[in-house]
Specification:
alpha+beta, TIM Barrel, Jelly Rolls, 17 helices
């Protein structure tokens, strides 16, 4: 940034950019002049004072559960922000079309009011909030707009008090872009019908609220995608216009969302600038045409949509919307008189988002989790995001408007005066830097200092925010591309005015005019207030004389024409004196009008006079806001005439060129000398080419009058939520001055005891020491004052939080646990820790009391019994009132996965029950359970162990006991039909006499109930471990739903059981089972490289090469040699050469990975016995191929050498060799 010091002159301060300021940019930047007239108060419509509540709001509710007191104080005091919008309402409450009755609304509403009062943030409630709802809560099965509207009116009448009822209700958020969700097709007809149905909902709700006399204002339709110009304005006709036709009569304001970027759907574009202006002007114009008034706007969301970033937070990512907030804000500030509210889409915390995204914040939030304050998944504190800088920039701006003027559409200016403060806000819409020359017109005082706040957000960079104060008064400033600057000038005394400027907007009865080449489009503006301090003869005739349009007009008068005009001027003055305000009805005036209409030479003289002097004595400038929608290659500079006078149309407009959009749709501001305006005006617009529409033309004019001073007579200070404040945080007070139209509403703040608290010029109270103090606001004229008594507490503003700091994984089995709890509390409270089961069944609670402050408390929870090994529990730490129960809690931290250590169990890979706690070393039976017909009991106990720490106790004192495992826990094929299994377990009888025992049995429930024969076991001895072994062959039943059951039948016995084991003892039919035939050892041995392998050969055992199981063999080589593997004679089983008259099946699985086929041989051969070889040639494809041969055995016993087994691939120099081999198998065929 660059500034140049200058000098304020007594009558005229001309702040020009000096050569030293321009420096390197003097050839790149043309300066833009801004005239600032402190002597003139400005009104937009009837509004001059900046109503901050309309502009500086969070998209959040102050009573939202995600906020704490600390958050609300930050928003209100530091950011000076209000609250604007929240999602909830009657249809969200009902959720179905079975809407509650009025009687139910009365009863449930009373409960709701009570609950709202009990909200810990209830004292911050703000009525200036919009309640809105998701369309899916409204458009439910059987939804009825009439019945639903009755329920909505009941809800707003009975669920709130007059002091808490929200001022605004937006029945659905962005409904039209969701029409397809409810009709299931993109077909336009059903979507159009659904949109009309949605509009009917708005209409019926608005009507019902009006009939009830509810103060809540209904707004809609919350347009997400106001690309009104699309499809030659069919979008306008089918959406916004349709809504206004169906529901507009009952709407208190029209709501829509403006975003730079893509909001839900539509083109990626910049709305800020001319496009936003055109959207607003079209809605205003149609409102005026339809109802004779402009209904207000409710901008319920606005901002920027960013892309190209992940979920991770960065200052750069968080900054990108800031440009859009400011660009759009300046448009809204210029329409305050017809703005209900505006809400930048800056939300609060959005816990739902960061909890799902590893604590990275939602892009729109103003607060984010502090990475240093996240403990065990609990966020203990938050940091501001870059979004806070928007509010910091504007935090102190207030006051009433003064007159400013600029000619550059890409520079927006707003100026406000509050006492001795002048706030000048500048916004650069341009993609390039802009040099601004400030021209303070005709003001005598010199400011003593200037505070400069700057917010510059370069694309793809973090925001650059600065706040500086200087006693050098800068004469010029250079704005970076898209930068916003707020200058706060301080003068020695209050700024006073001598005049008032009134800005009014006028709307034509014509709109949406189709453009036809060379065909004038006419727009008429009536009842325009023109500047007319001294009514001349020519001015009086302006609206009464009809001119010959074909007559040439000269911007000069001949001597004779000047003489005639003077003569008639003298005559007109006589008429005015005689008839005063009724001169237009006088006979003489009517004669003069007739004379000038009938006499061509007089008509010509009058036209020439108007061409030179205009129709009134105004010296200022009006603006025609022409909004057009057409293709980019079409002209945007038509011929425009105002009351017959040609005006220049600029080839520039606010913001970017819109080239990224399909069509241009924007407002072009055309300067018009105000002297050419009349009470009734005709504007003619002629384009040289066809297509497109002029959607609207709005005439904006300013008139000036002598300043009318309305003195302040009363003042009040808005009460704080609490009459006390903490000693560590400033609070911001607000004063209301009466009457509402008082000219100067600034107040002087003072403190009764600055040693307790001070107060600055902005009403910010800074506590110094605990004690009592009175803060007083006095009107500038000293007529009235108001005081607020405050107590500064000896207390700090702390977030009330708790978090368990311990890791709660794999804790030892115990009946007492100690928890460390980090806490922050603003008053003395209890910390309670409770343990419950995974399903939420309470077990035990302990608590301790902590003093106000921060720290770590240790809470010991004693339990009635030890927690179960391997089980999961919940732990909740809560911060409660001292002596209070769970209902007094202000914060909590719940951990749902506290686990108790499961002793490490060594799984016997040969035991088919290895994964199912067969030795009971977990300390529990699970997954073993009692059989369905068990009468007695079974449980684990350390004294029942033969080996390890635990065993199973089986007690048949009360009756028989069976123990089993649910068959669903076994994988399919865990027990295979036809296989032989050995069951073994260790058994000791502890109680009982004689013979006692039971049986084992395999059970299958896949198709009814089936079981193997009962295999009985038993003992006669006592207190001695005995090993039990039983074998069984599984019958031919399905390989699913099979389990084992041990059933103890003898009554009156107590048994100890340990080390239950089931082994598959079925002989393996594969002759090669002992030589790693399927490579499941993870190694290649005992296989060795084939004798022909060359140096390029790589033999690898890997998971990637497996057909089944975990491992297979991969063979790779260059293919110049036969390549493979061999089982050497001393390893290879010789079954194939025993000459016993048997047949054998030889098989394996293989595939080629080269993209082509692979060929080879599998061969069993003894050295010196080639004629007795057993072999086959094979070919492998790119998918797994099963190779299989059947051969009779041969006689190798007569040979001197035993045989080997070779499996090799033939040389393949073209593609090389890359083959997977698995499951090599040799099996005797019966």
């Amino acid at each position: 940034m660059k500034f140049v010091a200058g000098v304020f002159k007594q009558k005229l301060l001309s702040l020009a950019i000096s050569a030293s300021f321009i420096g390197f940019s003097q050839y790149a930047l043309a300066s833009t002049d801004v005239k600032i007239n402190l002597t003139k108060q400005k009104f937009i419509g009837d509004v001059s004072e900046l109503d901050r509540q309309k502009f500086f709001n969070l998209h959040a509710s102050p009573t939202a559960s995600e906020f704490s007191e600390q958050d609300i104080l930050f928003f209100k005091n530091e950011l000076n922000a209000g609250f604007g919008r929240a999602f909830w309402g009657p249809l969200s409450t009902a959720k179905t079309s079975d809407y509650p009755t009025t009687e139910q609304a009365i009863a449930n509403g009373a409960t709701s009011i009570t609950n709202a009062k009990n909200n810990p943030l209830a004292h911050h409630h703000d009525q200036r909030i919009i309640m809105t709802e998701h369309p899916y809560n409204v458009i439910v099965d059987g939804n009825d707009p009439v019945a639903g509207a009755r329920w909505a009116a009941d809800y707003f009448q009975h669920y709130y008090t007059d002091e808490t009822r929200p001022l605004f209700y937006e029945p659905m958020n962005e409904p039209f872009v969701h029409s397809k969700d409810f009709v299931g097709t993109w077909d336009e007809a059903p979507n159009a019908e659904m949109r009309r149905h949605m509009a009917t909902w708005f209409a019926e709700i608005g009507k019902a609220f009006d009939q009830r006399g509810l103060e809540t204002q209904v707004v809609g339709y919350s347009a997400a995608w106001p690309s009104l110009e699309l499809w030659d304005f069919a979008h306008w006709n089918s959406r916004q216009k349709m809504f206004m036709d169906v529901a507009g009569e009952y709407m208190d304001a029209f709501s829509f969302h403006l975003y730079d970027g893509v909001n839900v759907t539509g083109q990626s574009n910049e709305r800020s600038g001319s496009n936003a202006e055109a959207i607003i002007d079209l809605i205003e114009t149609y409102s005026y045409i339809k109802w004779g008034e402009v209904k207000p706007h409710a901008i319920t969301e606005y901002g920027g949509i960013i892309d190209g970033y992940g979920v991770e937070y960065s200052a750069e990512k968080s900054s990108q919307e800031l440009r859009s907030y400011n660009h759009l804000l300046f448009s809204f500030l210029e329409k305050e008189d017809r703005l209900l509210t505006s809400i930048p889409f800056i939300t609060g915390i959005a816990k739902w988002y960061y909890q799902a995204n590893n604590f990275h914040p939602y892009s729109a939030t103003v607060l984010r989790p502090d990475p240093a304050k996240i403990v065990n998944g609990k966020v203990l504190d938050y940091l501001p995001t870059e979004k806070a800088k928007f509010f910091h920039l504007w935090a102190d701006v207030k006051g009433h408007r003064i007159d400013v003027a600029e000619q550059d559409p890409d520079l927006a200016v707003q100026a406000f005066v509050y006492g001795n403060k002048l706030f000048v806000a500048l916004n650069n819409y341009d993609n390039a830097n802009k040099a601004v020359n400030l021209d303070f017109v005709e003001y005598a005082q010199t400011p003593s200092q200037v505070r400069i706040k700057r917010l510059n957000v370069p694309f793809a960079e973090a925001a650059q925010y600065s706040d500086e104060t200087s006693s050098d008064i800068f004469t010029a400033i250079e704005l970076a591309a898209h930068e916003t600057v707020v200058l706060e000038y301080s003068y020695q005394t209050d700024i006073m005015h001598t005049a008032q400027v009134h800005q009014a907007s006028y709307y034509a009865n014509e709109y949406m005019q189709e453009i036809v080449a060379n065909q004038p489009l006419t727009f008429n503006f009536s009842q325009v207030d023109v500047q007319q301090d001294n009514l001349s003869f020519a001015d009086a005739l302006a609206d009464h004389v009809t001119f010959d349009k074909e007559m040439p007009v000269k911007k000069s008068l001949s001597r004779s024409q000047k003489f005639m005009i003077k003569r008639f001027e003298r005559l007109f003055n006589i008429v005015k004196r005689r008839y005063a305000g009724n001169y237009q009805n006088s006979f003489l005036f009517k004669v003069l009008v007739k004379f000038f209409n009938e006499k061509a030479y007089l008509n010509q003289a009058l036209q020439n006079y108007y061409a030179v002097n205009g129709y009134n004595d105004a010296t200022g400038q009006a603006t025609l806001r022409m909004s057009i929608g057409r293709k980019h290659d079409k002209s945007k500079q038509p011929v425009v005439k105002v009351n017959g006078h040609l005006v220049d149309v600029p080839n520039n407009w606010k913001g970017y060129d819109q080239a990224a959009r399909d069509d241009f749709f924007g407002t072009i501001e055309i300067p018009v000398a105000a002297k050419y305006l009349k009470v009734h005006n005709q504007v003619d617009v002629t384009f040289s080419d066809s297509e497109g529409h002029v959607s609207s033309i709005v005439l904006v004019n300013q008139t000036e009058e002598v300043f009318e001073h309305v003195p302040a007579t009363d003042v009040s200070i808005e009460a704080l939520a609490n009459s006390s404040i903490n000693k560590d945080k400033p609070v911001r007070l607000h004063a209301n001055v009466l009457p509402a139209n008082a000219s100067y509403k600034n107040v002087l703040w003072s403190s009764s005891d600055p040693s307790i608290a001070t107060v600055n010029e902005h009403g910010v109270v800074t506590p110094i020491n605990p004690g009592f103090v009175a803060i007083t606001a006095t009107t500038a004229n000293g007529v009235a004052s108001s005081s607020l008594d405050l107590q500064v507490l000896d207390r700090e503003t702390l977030r009330n939080t708790v978090a368990i700091t311990d890791s709660l994984q794999d804790l030892a089995v115990n009946d007492s646990y100690s928890f460390n709890v980090q806490y922050s509390t603003d008053t003395d409270r209890d910390i309670a820790v409770e343990i419950s089961t995974a399903s939420g069944q309470w077990i035990a609670t302990a608590k301790t009391t902590v003093a106000a402050g921060e720290g770590v408390a240790t809470v010991v929870v004693n339990l009635p019994d030890e927690l179960e090994a391997g089980a999961t529990y919940q732990v909740l730490a809560s911060l409660r009132a001292v002596g209070g129960n769970w209902q007094t809690g202000v914060d909590g931290h719940r951990i749902t996965d506290m686990t108790i250590e499961q002793p490490e169990v060594i799984v016997d890979e040969n035991n088919l029950l290895g994964e199912f706690n067969p030795q009971f070393e977990t300390g529990s039976m699970f997954p073993w359970e009692h059989a369905w017909d068990a009468v007695g009991n079974a449980y684990t106990d350390a004294n029942a162990a033969k080996d390890g720490d635990y065993g199973l106790v089986v007690d048949t004192t009360a009756g028989k006991v069976g123990v089993t495992i649910a068959p669903s826990l076994f994988a399919d094929g865990h027990f295979v039909a036809g296989k032989e299994y050995k069951l073994s377990f260790d058994l000791k009888r502890i109680q009982g006499s004689g013979w006692g025992g039971g049986f084992s049995q395999y059970i299958n429930t896949a198709d009814g109930w089936k079981a193997t024969p009962q295999a009985w076991f038993g003992l006669t001895n006592q207190n001695a471990w005995t090993s039990i072994e039983q074998t069984v062959v599984i019958p031919e039943w399905q390989e699913t739903a099979t389990t084992i059951q041990l059933n103890f039948q003898t009554l009156g016995q107590v048994w100890h059981v340990d080390n239950i084991k089931i082994e598959d003892i079925t002989p393996d039919p594969n002759v090669l089972s002992t030589v790693n035939a399927n490579f499941e050892s993870g190694e290649i041995a005992p296989w060795v490289p084939y004798w022909e392998n060359n140096a390029t050969t790589v033999l690898t055992v890997s998971n990637a090469a497996a057909k089944d199981g975990q491992f297979g063999l991969n063979i790779q080589a260059d293919g110049n040699k036969n390549t493979g593997v061999t089982l050497a004679p001393d390893v290879f089983p010789q079954d194939l050469g025993l000459n016993q008259g048997k047949q054998y099946k030889i098989s394996f699985e293989g595939r080629s990975n080269t993209g082509g086929k692979a060929q080879g041989w599998i061969r069993a051969v003894a050295q010196g016995g080639w004629s007795s070889r057993i072999e086959t040639w094979f070919e492998l494809g790119t998918e797994w191929t099963h190779v299989e041969i059947i051969r009779s055995d041969v006689d190798w016993t007569v040979l001197a050498n035993p045989a080997r087994l070779d499996l090799y691939l033939l040389n393949n120099a073209g593609l090389g060799i890359d083959v997977d081999i698995d499951n090599v198998h040799i099996e005797e065929i019966e």
